[in-house]
Design brief:
- The protein is of the alpha+beta class.
- The protein is built from twelve helices and 17 strands.
- Helix 5 crosses helix 8, helix 6 crosses helix 11 and helix 8 crosses helix 11.
- The radius of gyration is 22 Å and the shape is globular.
Length: 493
């Protein structure tokens, strides 16, 4: 039976770009009048084309180390029933353990897959040639100082073999998860498998709990399908596609006896909040958005083909402000003019603003071929950032982790809306301990709206039409986020 909160949510969600139809589970159910459920609203399209999960290109993600089969490791299978009934079964053991390195993903300097350009009423122009890019950049006076960014660099695409550590950091000891496993009214139990001291749940459990219509492991590819929801993953990879929106999980998917294992942390901190936002317990009512334009003043940020990140971010913040105000929201700007505000100062503005959420606006930098959109939520406790420069392993938890579920839901709403509307390269929803997120007492994200070092993408970023269009998408996404979590927020009053 679907909860009253879920019914209220699904009744108000409107159509976007792809069709969601028949009832399958709490996460996909429709209500009277064929009104769609949460996924259609939150993902803003995303697409549901059933093609095998794409192989990550070097420019987008470093190939995850091949995970050892859980069947070759010491493992203990535990079935947890909602009412506390626990049954165990064990199987043979051998040497070896599944470990995750302190750095889980690093984008490289090479050409990513080509994305369709956004359909904007801009005057057509010829692509910018590489030599023109270098000439324009050479004429720009100065560059942001190393250390002005969150961790001293502006983008992971800048890292090369020469700048990476000679040897990777040792993998941290597994942290015992304390997250309660999801529950529902179907009395579906969870099969928990311990691998290397860390908890994993079986693909069969996920299939049964969320009532997918099919579950299949074909070679390295893992598929969970229903009529309006497709989850794709790959054995040994941290990427998961949910309705073709890319997420970077904390740990790779493992294999066990022909089935897939997902980490308990990823289930609790990513999969469940995205699929069932009405069950989020850290959601709070809000009517105000704190917009943080990255960099400012002497901190120019990334140096782009047509200008500096600080200027583009400031202009974007004002346009997003206008779009949000038209939706009825109050808006506070962390820096309304070209001034320098410390990272702690930005966080202080967010924390001092009641009934608010926080969105930090940035633009990326890298090689001239680097392209695409990515969005960051704070790394959950017990896992690593998705980038080498993203703050490493989060051992003890941070202030912002009190809103882990709301953070990932907000990131999903914004990222999916922009990706589905403009068809940019999807670099994924990632994790990092950016300073503006670690101490934030409100739900918050950091949005990277494209590469200023890519000639064609920077031309769009410098365009008023582009900024207006992206601002509209972000405003719509905030409305979707509030609608999707309305039931959860009501419970918190």
């Amino acid at each position: 039976m679907i909860s009253n909160a879920a019914r209220c949510l699904m009744l108000v969600l409107a159509a976007v770009s792809f069709s969601l139809t028949q009832v399958r589970a709490d996460v996909t159910a429709t209500e009277g009048g064929n009104k769609p459920g949460f996924l259609k609203r939150m993902f803003g399209g995303g697409g549901s084309k059933e093609t095998p999960p794409p192989t990550p290109t070097p420019a987008e993600v470093k190939e995850a180390p091949k995970a050892k089969s859980a069947s070759s490791e010491s493992r203990e299978k535990i079935t947890i029933k909602p009412k506390g009934t626990v049954s165990k079964s064990s199987s043979g053991s051998s040497k070896g353990s599944s470990k995750k390195s302190g750095s889980t993903e690093t984008a490289k300097k090479s050409t990513p897959e080509k994305a369709a350009a956004p359909a904007l009423p801009e005057k057509k122009s010829e692509p910018v040639k590489p030599e023109e890019i270098e000439k324009k950049m050479a004429n720009l006076p100065g560059q942001s100082k190393a250390g002005d960014g969150e961790f001293g660099t502006d983008d992971d695409d800048k890292q090369t073999a020469a700048t990476k550590p000679a040897t990777p950091e040792p993998a941290p000891a597994p942290v015992t998860p304390t997250e309660a496993l999801p529950t529902n009214t179907k009395n579906t139990g969870w099969q928990v498998v311990k691998v290397g001291g860390r908890d994993y749940v079986t693909g069969e459990s996920i299939n049964s709990f969320y009532r997918f219509s099919s579950y299949k492991v074909d070679g390295k590819h893992v598929w969970l399908r229903s009529n309006n929801l497709i989850l794709k993953a790959s054995i040994g990879s941290q990427e998961v596609l949910i309705n073709n929106i890319k997420f970077i999980m904390s740990f790779p998917v493992l294999e066990s006896n022909g089935g897939a294992l997902f980490s308990r942390l990823d289930l609790c901190k990513l999969i469940d909040p995205v699929l069932r936002p009405t069950y989020i317990t850290d959601a709070e009512p809000f009517d105000t958005i704190v917009l943080d334009a990255g960099h400012g003043g002497h901190d120019a940020g990334a140096r782009g083909v047509y200008g500096y990140e600080k200027d583009f971010a400031l202009k974007m913040s004002h346009v997003v402000k206008d779009a949000l105000q038209k939706k009825g929201f109050k808006v506070v700007l962390s820096r309304p003019v070209d001034s320098f505000v410390t990272l702690s100062g930005r966080v202080a503005v967010a924390n001092a603003t009641p009934r608010s959420i926080f969105i930090s606006l940035h633009f990326n930098s890298g090689g001239s071929a680097a392209t695409g959109i990515e969005t960051f939520a704070l790394t959950p406790q017990g896992s690593s950032a998705s980038l080498e420069r993203g703050g490493g392993f989060n051992y003890n938890g941070l202030t912002g982790n009190s809103h882990d579920s709301a953070n990932i839901a907000l990131a999903t709403a914004v990222h999916a809306m922009v990706i589905s509307r403009f068809k940019f390269v999807d670099r994924g929803i990632k994790r990092a301990q950016w300073s503006v997120l670690t101490g934030c007492k409100r739900p918050g994200i950091l949005f990277e709206g494209g590469f200023v070092t890519n000639g064609n993408e920077c031309r769009l970023i410098a365009s008023d039409t582009y900024r207006t269009s992206v601002a509209s998408a972000i405003a719509d996404a905030v409305v979707n986020y509030r609608t999707a979590l309305r039931g959860a927020m009501t419970k918190q009053r």
